[in-house]
């Protein structure tokens, strides 16, 4: 190295190395109090590397001095100045490195090591005192348990001592080593005390045998069973009652209030499936477990809706069935009692619910209820309709209970068995055994339910009636049941002709006026392999007639209405199309023509707009301390289409004019189709629902909530846990046929990773486009993201150059070039083009965005005043005042691209919970609101911007700031 470079170059290299070492040293000195343990260890490694670089550069300079001295007459002797320079650089570097090592060592020991090691040693010493105080007795199991626990504590203290040995001061290091040796000696002494407990237990056993032999106890006549805590099986309706009973019994059974005992008793009282699905073993206390259970099963609104829906699903009572009437009344009382416990009886007093209960009553009881409600003395008020109905049902419950008991006392009817009239021969026995199944097909699975038989459905009407008669089934439901049992009426015939003829109620399979469906062989439904003509309609009789041609579009008129489609020239005619010049592609892909449209009212919930969905996806990434950014490669093309769907994109193609035309179809999702995004996202979510990934609850949530199209953004407070989540997400996507690009984690240096790859492989020369993103740049839903410092920035650009295929040809101007490159004149079209380039989904730069919106409104108002006849104002020049304001805005846009925002809303070293602070204001131009989080930290307070929103003031409210200030209240987060 010294032979190939000059002395000046080596000195420059040494100066650069010293500068980098100094910058890193100053950064550590300034930030060492707020850095984490891992960051301090990494800083020490980086300092050592940079110091080695300085020393190597200094050695190279010294070698160059020696080389030049050999060429002179003095020989290889260095001058005093050169020696002093070399020694000064080496000594300063060594002293600075030693000073920083001492600083990092002191910080690590003071902030992290001393507390951990002290707590571990103190816990082991306290446990030794506790175990030593136990008097030898026959309870050897308790001593063994405490001894095992003590052994774990001693091992833990020894491990912490080994870990922090190199960071502790020498005095404290010797002190802790001495304490660890004492702990090991005391533990060995306690192990030897096991013999005392063994002797004590043997003595107690011998005394117990002597006492038992001398005293004869009477045999107990009562067997006691220990009381067990109630068990929760996952029924949301029983959660609150179970929790109330469990806490009451647990307090009585465990009056000491031990948190550990309460946690294990709670886990034992839960179903294994709930413990496994919610991962309750990972929580520390019972209160945390109850919080998770409350969020899952304790929602008051969800429980109320479930109770009402369960009540409405009860079947209606038909005929005189006292037992079913009593069950219905008890179900209504139970639902009312549960809702009373929740404090939400209003859900049941809804008129729709009350009407549903009334419809389930039998005709006789319904008549009595109407007579009861019509009495003047008990006139039912609409507000108390349900209360009156409940009181009436309670009064009738005892009556129908007695009727049911009287009915059970009736002697059962004697079953009449008919003797078989045929001879008991071998052939007859085979036929009788065969008749034990279905009377039509002989299947045992549906021998009493004819409607399941496929052969029965295709029989003639007379054959069906004969099969019903031979089976003795009911003509209403096609089942075999007693007369008093419940008969299904959901499948009775509803043909109008049957009602007009006043026919007896019957199943729709027995309808004499049913349409006969012609059975079509499956061979006729197979798609033909050779297609001579491909049209975009289902049948050839519906081919429309061409009405008019405009460019590449054709208006067709046919029996199904007017449609618009692309023109399809003859396959072998020579055509000249300026937009599609090709010698091989003679036909474009088929389009599906629209037949008719109808105006429908949408009653389903509307999904959020794309900008709102992007906001919901970005904000979860800001919760955790560590973030991960993932991108799916070619997401749309990774989804395969079904065989019947590929025919929506069919085209003809050949590579040369000599070849024959071939028919092709697109077999994967095309990015140009409107439903492509929905199909791809649905495929991702269905991959997460596969049975083998049922345990990946957190990964399923990430794919459902933290993903937007092909971008996945998530965060977590633990980097190790975050890497596990990302690995499982990649496993799920791989099972669905998707491939992920390498994950980008906050804090990693992508330049270091890409440098090694560039040295190993030689990439071909590529054309760099203007304003092209660099390899280390990342995007998160339109926001720039730098992983080294874990910050967002707005990717806004000002560029007035011409476009070619939607891309600017010139470079983005710098701050000093914006005013000179602003066009003269500046039009509304150019102003709106630059202002709309600011994309800010989470409101980091709302003030600048609103300034642009206000300028656009002013431009339109100025260009088209009242009474003006000008229609097109897009290319009119703006006034000098507006142009000056727009130029100032463009310069602020350039400044904004350099501003960075912290991604994590939670800073390092927080000491308490945050305070949410909102500000709002309004004027005659706009109104808005902003939300901040104020965090108290160890080194002072920290403020983080969460979100901001703003809107333009309506034109009819302009000049009235009070109304704008009232509107801003609706923007504040609730």
From TrEMBL:
Pfam families: DUF1759, Peptidase_A17. It comes from the Eukaryota. The keyword Protein biosynthesis does not apply. The keyword Coiled coil applies. InterPro entries: DNA/RNA_pol_sf, DUF1759, Retrotrans_Pao. Keywords: Coiled coil. Residues 37-106 form a coiled coil. This is Gag-pol fusion poly. It comes from Labeo rohita.
């Amino acid at each position: 190295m010294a032979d190939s470079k000059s002395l000046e170059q080596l000195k420059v290299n040494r100066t650069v190395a010293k500068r980098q070492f100094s910058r890193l040293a100053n950064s550590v000195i300034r930030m060492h109090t707020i850095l984490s343990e891992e960051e301090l260890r990494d800083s020490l490694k980086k300092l050592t590397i940079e110091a080695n670089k300085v020393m190597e550069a200094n050695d190279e300079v010294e070698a160059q001095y020696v080389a030049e001295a050999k060429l002179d007459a003095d020989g290889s002797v260095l001058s005093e100045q050169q020696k002093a320079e070399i020694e000064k650089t080496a000594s300063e570097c060594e002293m600075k490195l030693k000073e920083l090592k001492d600083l990092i060592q002191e910080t690590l020991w003071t902030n992290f090591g001393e507390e951990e090691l002290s707590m571990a040693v103190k816990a082991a010493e306290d446990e030794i005192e506790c175990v030593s105080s136990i008097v030898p007795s026959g309870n050897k199991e308790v001593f063994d348990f405490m001894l095992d626990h003590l052994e774990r504590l001693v091992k833990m203290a020894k491990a912490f001592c080994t870990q922090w040995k190199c960071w502790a001061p020498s005095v404290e290091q010797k002190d802790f080593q001495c304490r660890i040796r004492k702990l090991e000696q005391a533990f060995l002494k306690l192990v030897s005390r096991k013999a005392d407990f063994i002797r004590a237990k043997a003595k107690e056993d011998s005394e117990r045998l002597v006492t038992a032999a001398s005293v004869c106890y009477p045999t107990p006549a009562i067997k006691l069973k220990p009381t067990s805590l109630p068990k929760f099986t996952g029924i949301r309706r029983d959660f609150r009652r179970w929790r109330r009973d469990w806490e009451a019994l647990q307090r009585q059974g465990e009056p000491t209030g031990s948190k550990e005992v309460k946690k294990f008793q709670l886990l034992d009282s839960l179903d294994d499936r709930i413990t496994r699905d919610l991962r309750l073993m990972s929580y520390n206390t019972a209160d945390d477990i109850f919080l998770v259970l409350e969020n899952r099963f304790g929602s008051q609104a969800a429980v109320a809706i479930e109770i009402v829906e369960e009540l409405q699903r009860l079947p209606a009572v038909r005929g005189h069935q006292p037992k079913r009437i009593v069950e219905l009344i008890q179900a209504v009382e139970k639902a009312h009692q549960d809702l009373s416990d929740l404090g939400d009886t209003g859900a049941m007093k809804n008129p729709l619910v009350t009407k549903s209960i009334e419809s389930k009553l039998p005709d006789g009881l319904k008549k009595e209820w109407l007579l009861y409600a019509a009495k003047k003395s008990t006139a039912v008020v609409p507000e108390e309709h349900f209360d009156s109905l409940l009181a009436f049902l309670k009064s009738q419950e005892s009556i129908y209970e007695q009727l049911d008991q009287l009915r059970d006392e009736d002697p059962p009817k004697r079953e009449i068995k008919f003797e078989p009239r045929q001879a008991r021969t071998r052939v007859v026995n085979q036929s009788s055994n065969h008749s034990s199944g279905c009377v039509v097909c002989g299947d045992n699975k549906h021998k009493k339910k004819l409607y399941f038989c496929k052969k029965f459905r295709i029989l003639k009407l007379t054959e069906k009636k004969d099969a019903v008669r031979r089976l003795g089934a009911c003509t209403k439901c096609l089942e075999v049941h007693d007369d008093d049992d419940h008969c299904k009426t959901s499948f009775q015939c509803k043909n109008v002709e049957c009602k007009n003829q006043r026919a007896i109620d019957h199943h729709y399979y027995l309808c004499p006026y049913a349409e006969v469906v012609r059975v079509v062989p499956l061979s006729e439904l197979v798609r033909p392999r050779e297609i001579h003509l491909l049209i975009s309609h289902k049948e050839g009789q519906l081919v429309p007639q061409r009405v008019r041609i405009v460019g590449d579009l054709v208006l067709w008129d046919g029996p199904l209405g007017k449609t618009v489609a692309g023109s399809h020239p003859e396959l072998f005619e020579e055509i000249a199309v300026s937009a599609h010049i090709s010698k091989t592609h003679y036909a474009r892909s088929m389009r599906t023509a629209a037949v008719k449209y109808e105006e429908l009212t949408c009653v389903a919930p509307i999904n959020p707009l794309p900008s709102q969905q992007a906001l919901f996806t970005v904000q979860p990434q800001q919760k955790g301390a560590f973030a991960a950014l993932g991108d799916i490669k070619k997401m749309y093309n990774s989804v395969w289409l079904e065989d019947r769907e590929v025919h929506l994109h069919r085209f003809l193609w050949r590579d040369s004019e000599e070849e024959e035309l071939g028919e092709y179809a697109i077999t994967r999702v095309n990015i140009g189709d409107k439903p492509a995004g929905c199909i791809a996202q649905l495929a991702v979510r269905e991959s997460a629902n596969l049975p083998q990934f049922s345990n990946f609850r957190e990964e399923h949530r990430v794919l459902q909530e933290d993903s937007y199209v092909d971008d996945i953004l998530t965060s977590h407070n633990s980097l190790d846990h975050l890497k596990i989540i990302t690995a499982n997400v990649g496993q799920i996507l791989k099972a669905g046929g998707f491939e992920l690009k390498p994950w980008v984690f906050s804090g990693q240096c992508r330049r270091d990773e890409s440098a090694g790859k560039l040295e190993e492989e030689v990439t071909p020369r590529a054309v760099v486009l203007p304003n092209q993103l660099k390899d280390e740049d990342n995007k998160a839903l339109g926001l720039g993201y730098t992983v080294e410092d874990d910050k967002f920035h707005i990717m806004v650009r000002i560029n007035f150059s011409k476009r070619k295929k939607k891309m600017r040809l010139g470079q983005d101007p710098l701050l000093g070039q914006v005013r000179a490159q602003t066009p003269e004149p500046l039009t509304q079209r150019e102003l709106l083009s630059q202002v709309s380039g600011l994309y800010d989904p989470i409101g980091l730069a709302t003030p600048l965005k609103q300034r642009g919106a206000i300028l656009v409104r002013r431009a339109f108002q100025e260009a088209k005043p009242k009474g003006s006849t000008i229609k097109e104002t897009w290319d009119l020049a703006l006034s000098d005042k507006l142009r000056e304001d727009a130029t100032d805005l463009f310069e602020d846009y350039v400044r904004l691209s350099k501003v960075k925002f912290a991604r994590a809303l939670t800073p390092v070293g927080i000491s308490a919970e945050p305070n949410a602070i909102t500000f709002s204001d309004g004027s005659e131009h706009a109104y808005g609101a902003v939300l901040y989080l104020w965090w108290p930290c160890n080194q002072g307070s920290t403020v983080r911007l969460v979100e901001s929103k703003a809107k333009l003031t309506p034109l009819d409210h302009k000049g009235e700031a009070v109304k704008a200030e009232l509107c801003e209240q609706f923007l504040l987060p609730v």
